[in-house]
């Protein structure tokens, strides 16, 4: 392991590398009540041509863990990226897209879920990351389920606290 080393193929994604903490994290969906949460995400380079990803979220008042994710973000020639993510509620998503300047746009290509995972099933995911003019990372996640068409679920602003 060589933390901090950055493979040259990752140059287009350099702005995403680091540990980010939410300063605003909002969730909503037509089937649930709107909510807020706290989240810490990390895109870490250990010298390989990919970023190692983790996300931990927790309840803003009670502090109990909520949604957890971990995975790998790989980059291919032509700024094409693939993001493979395992979610703690029994889902894996393979999301693909591109990095263009200070934006990353991803759409699910495959989703699998544990047989007894909670309903409704997620059928599609889209997430967009953008480095804004204040150096904050913005993320919007939309999803479709077996009951609801593509609708926004999460909107987060993060600030970097570890390079
Ligand atoms: C890609 C990531 C995520 C996916 C695919 C996902 C998926 C879902 C789905 C399918 C539902 C049920 C919606 C329905 O009943 O119609 C849901 C509900 C919910 N999600 Fe997410 N979610 C994600 C991330 C998060 C995050 C980061 C949080 C915040 C900590 C969160 C918090 C909630 C809450 C509080 C509910 C309502 C309670 C519940 O039904 O369990 N989700 N999510």
Automatic annotation (TrEMBL):
Reactions that this protein is recorded to catalyse: peroxynitrite = nitrate
Annotated THAP4-like heme-binding domain residues: 10-160
Listed Gene3D superfamilies: 2.40.128.20
Protein name: THAP4-like heme-binding domain-containing protein
Source organism per UniProt: Callosobruchus maculatus
């Amino acid at each position: 392991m060589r933390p901090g080393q950055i493979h040259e193929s990752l140059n287009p994604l350099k702005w995403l590398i680091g540990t980010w903490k939410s300063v605003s994290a909002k969730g909503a969906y037509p089937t649930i009540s709107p909510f807020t949460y706290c989240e810490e995400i990390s895109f870490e380079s250990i010298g390989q041509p990919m970023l190692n990803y983790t996300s931990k979220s927790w309840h803003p008042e009670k502090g109990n863990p909520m949604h957890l994710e971990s995975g790998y973000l790989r980059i291919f020639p032509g700024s094409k990226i693939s993001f493979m993510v395992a979610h703690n509620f029994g889902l894996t998503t393979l999301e693909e897209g591109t990095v263009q300047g200070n934006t990353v746009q991803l759409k699910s290509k495959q989703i699998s879920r544990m047989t007894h995972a909670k309903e409704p099933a997620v059928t599609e995911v889209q997430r967009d990351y953008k480095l804004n003019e204040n150096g904050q990372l913005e993320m919007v996640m939309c999803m479709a389920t077996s009951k609801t068409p593509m609708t926004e679920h999460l909107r987060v602003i993060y600030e970097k606290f570890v390079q």
